[in-house]
Structures are given as C-alpha cells and as structure tokens.
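Q: I have two molecules that I believe assemble together. Could you output structure tokens for the complex as a whole instead of separate predictions?
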Amino acid sequence: MDYRDLNLTGSSSPHIRTKDGTGHIMGEVMLAMVPALGFAVYNFGWRALVNTAVSILACCGFEWLYRAAMKKNNTVPDLSAAVTGMLIAFVCPVTIPYWILIIGDCFAIVIVKQLFGGIGKNFLNPALAARAFMLSWAGAMTNWVCPRASVPIWGAVDAATAATPMSYLHANNLAGLTETYSLGDMFVGVIGGSMGEVSALCLLLGGLFLLYRKVITWCIPVSYIGTVAVLTFIFPRGNDPVTWMLYNLLGGGLMLGAFFMATDYVTSPVSKRGQAIFGVGCGLITVFIRYFGSYNEGVCYAILLMNLTVWLIDRNVKPSRFGVTKAAKSKEKEAAAK
Amino acid sequence: MNFGKQLKEGLLTQNPVLVQLLGMCSTLAITTSISNGIGMGVAVIIILTLSNIFISLLRKIIPNQVRIAAFIVVIAGFVTMVDLLLQAYFQDLAESLGVFIPLIVVNCIILGRAESFASKNGVLASAVDGVCQGLGYTAVLLVMSAIREFLGSGALAGIQIFPAEYGANMLVLPVGGFLVLGCLIALMQWALNKSGKGGK
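A: Yes, here they are, computed for all two components at once.
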C-alpha cells in the first residue's frame, strides 16, 4: 500500500507544539501586574489606572506608528509594547503629568526599542531607560504623594506630599522610618512611592504567578533580592540589622525590578549561571547606589548597568555542550595548540 | 580639482563626524547651544584650512619619520593664534568654549586631514579640502546643538521658544550629547545605505 493513500500530514519535527507565543507570555506578565495595579488604585486613586491606560495606549500607538512608517510588520499584537507601557506607568509617581508620560513612552519605544530593531534587539530595558530619561523633569518625577491621598485625574495636584521610605533610608533615619511606616505597611504597600512599586505583597503575588507559569525562572529574582538582603544584613546602618534589611527589601523598586524588569528575556543572560551573575551584579549596584550614591534608590540604574554587561556574561558563561567532558575538552585544547 | 565632489564628501559621504567618526570629543562637549556650535565650527574651519595649506606647502620638506610631530607644531601654531584672537575679540565665546579651543590641537579631524590629504595633495586642493571638511564638521555641530538646545532648554540660538521647564534637560547634559550623536550617526548611515553610497 502506498503511504500516500493514508491521510497523513508530512512535517519535520517538532510535532507537539504549545500555543505559547510572545503575545501569550506578555499577556501573562500583564496579568501578573494586575494585583499591583489594583493596589495602586486603592492607594492613590483612579489616576493610577488612567496613567496606566494612557501609557499602554501611547506605547502601542508609537510602536504601530514607527512600524507603519518604516513599512515593517505590525508588532503591537505581541503585547511587548503594552508591557513596556504598563511598566513605565508603574515606575513613575502617580502625579506625573500625562505629557511627560507620553514623552517617556515615545523614548522607550522609538529610541530604545525600535531604532535597534524592535522586540528582541534592544540592549536596554525600554521602561527603565525611559525612566532614566524622564528624570529630565526631576521635580515631576519625585513628587511623592502620601499613601491614600486623593489625586485628581485631571488638573493641578495639591495632595499632601510625603517622604518615601527610601529617603528615610538614604538619610540613615531608621527610627523615623519605623515610626512613620510599620513593617506591615511596608509589606502591604500603604506607603509613598512610585505608583506600581509600593506593594511588595502584590508584586510578590505577581512574581510567584510568573514563576508558577514558568514565564520567569527563579535565578534572577532570588540572586538579586538575596544579594541585597545579605549586604544590608551584614552592613546595617543602625543597631538592628534585621529591621534595616527588611525595610531595604520592601522599600523602593526592588520587588518590581527583581521580578518584572531584571527578568526581561531580551536584556538578561541566557544561561542560569549567567542569570545568577546578573542578579548578584544588580544587587551589588543597587546597594552601592543606596549606600554611597546621591540618589535615594538604585534599582533602575543597577538593572540598566547590568543590561550593558549581558553580552559579556553571555559570551563567558556558556553552558557546556552535551556529551563534552572535561577530559575531552582539554584534549581538544591540546589539539588546537598543536 | 573638483570642488563639488569635495564639498559633497565633506558634508555627506565622508562627513568627518558622522562617517569618519573623528572629533567626537569636542562635538559631544560643546554642542549645548547654537552659538557654541557656530563659534567652534568657524574656529575649526579656519584652523583646518590654514594648517592644510601650510602642511601641503611643506609636504616635500617634512621628513616622513617625524611628520606627525611636524603636523602638530603647525596645527598648534594656528590654534594658538585663533585662541588668542577669540580671547581678544570674542571673550564670551572663548569662555563658554573653554578648554576645547586649545584642544583643537589634538582634534583628530585636523591631524587626520593633514595625514590623509594635505600631505599628499597640492595647495589649492588642500585648502578646498580644509574648507569642505570644516563645513561638514560645522554642519553637524549646528544640527546637534540646535536639537539639544531646542529640546533640552526650549530655546533656539538663545531665543526662548517654549518655557525651559518643559525641556528635557537630560539632552543638555553630557548623556544627551551621546544620545543625539548616536541618533544622528544612525540616521546618516541609514540615509547613505538607502542611497547606495554606504561605505561597505
């Protein structure tokens, strides 16, 4: 019997496929950020939601515009621009004027991402690069309102401002910080700060969801947060290393950075060992900036700086090929030397 | 002698900054305002043209082994003249350009043109080459300083167009220099590749 009579489909392997695509993964990342967004709305009012919507729309808009203008395929449906937009809104204060937000979106999508070739080709995390650029308007980017303040969606913001935990930590004022914000507040997120980074609880939930769904691996978050924990525990400022460490872990953008930004596929190393090095590097630089820098918070620059080293890490930390033993390797070397 | 070709090379296809990637240091540092850009550009045109003429004249006398040192002596002489003239007649400009006028001595564009053009070509061609390459440099300075001044502080040539607090002051800072220069180089390469004249 000729096999052509059978109703078979001829194709090369792999034969079992999942429906996972970039859009699917990015959708799960966005889903994982929803709890933090919900808490931002609870903490800062509906403006948090409007900011996020504006930022997502602007990012998708710029992505579509650039791709259309350059006559390239439309990459809006892969949702990577939407994730960038969401993250940009998350790392800004809730009071950020919409025009600054839109300029930041434009910078992230056009300059950082598309000029280098679009998704998969950018060497910096677009959202963090945009945040660094948006610090041009330093006043607007550091206008921290009190937790549970009511911020109007449109018009002048006259809500009371408050020092964030990071500024207390930067001033070595642990006593003042524990008086103002309890550890519980820090964990749940009833504190001042960037819109999406306040709630360690919600971000942890999102991060665990991503780990459970295998969107991210544990290497980068654990090595990053672990490094910060060890360093702040060994070198506390004050007499209470545990409290100092916990406030350092829960304050600022550490949770958001470690779970959602340092784990960006495009700008993090490929191998597990590389990812661990990357995470430790992020942790070191974060603590250095917090301790010795003039900024209160170092997560943004730490991740950006380590983004720049990814090619170096990837080049030097190659996993060994299957079946290649040490003996075979040294033989190969000898042969090459001859 | 082909003035049109040399001009086109200086401005576009062999632009000293955007294609040869020479003279980046001063380009990054002084392009914070248009007046700086024009001042620096004119200074470089004058020095480049004069040094090209003299090196072309001396090209048969200078021994090959010490040519770089000889070029530097010629260039340094003209730079000193321009520096003193600026300090005498344009004090504000001299102050805002600061150390970057004396640093023209080691500007790669001038030494590069001396080495690659003036020491091999006649006086007239070298003079034209100096003007054209200088114009290319000045054009880049003008574009860069216009972008940085306008977007960074909301002004053009000192005239306020929109309030300064809306400007992205990052662009006036050193990081903005790298950013704008990178974008301009990318744009230039894209345009050259598109017109089929890329240096591949």
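A: One point stands out. The longest strand of chain B covers residues 155-156.
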